[in-house]
Amino acid sequence: MVRMSAEERRESVIRAAMVEFARAGYRGTSTEVIAQRVGVSQPYLFRLFPNKQAIFLAAAKRCVEDTTEVFRGAGEGLEGHEALDAMGAAYRALIADDPDMLHMQMQVYVAVASAEAAGDHEFGEPIRASWMEMFDTVHLKLGADVGETTQFFAYGMLINVFVSLGFPPEHRAWTGFEPSSPPKE
């Protein structure tokens, strides 16, 4: 049997935590269930991470970073509407192929909003920094056009809502949905 390095084990904890937090949220996920998914003891988990919050933040950052990489890869060599369409299609494929990615995103928003409401403004800082890197990646691919970037993320959030609520692609809620151009009034 090949032993994993601490860094490999840490990576496996982050991946397992993404799944567990995606499904049960920050408050509903125990470190014990994460340790079980990875196949390590809870004390070993705390040798890799100081606490549950650190595990969540690592998983949240990874979720945003992975999404950023999807955008970066899809938009490679493209600009403007070609980049927008490619990144939009790649995102839709990402959340269709791995629903836990969308669920984790939604849990991240809830956890940060809850922390902010409780007066903990530091909790969301690393997540906001990762999110801004994603925003900047898309923004540059779209020619640094603020309107295009805003529209891209607005449509992305609309996709998140439709998928989270379980609207199938043929549902009328999707009618007129074209990521590269807003519906005509």
List keywords for this structure.
single chain; 185 residues; mainly alpha; 8 helices; 73% helix; globular; disordered C terminus
The average pLDDT score comes to 91
Number of strands: 0
Structural class: mainly alpha
The radius of gyration computed from the alpha-carbon positions, rounded to a whole number of angstroms, is: 18 Å
Taking the sheet with the most strands, its summary is: none
**% residues in beta strands:** under 5%
Q: Which regions have little confidence, pLDDT < 50, spanning 5+ residues?
A: 180-185
Number of helical regions: 8
Order of helices and strands: HHHHHHHH
Question: SSE layout and pairings?
Answer:
Layout: H1 6-28, H2 31-38, H3 42-48, H4 52-75, H5 80-97, H6 99-117, H7 125-141, H8 146-164
What does the model show?
It is a single chain. The protein is mainly alpha-helical and 185 residues long. It contains 8 helices and no strands. 73% of the residues lie in helices and 0% in strands. α4 (52-75) crosses α5 (80-97).
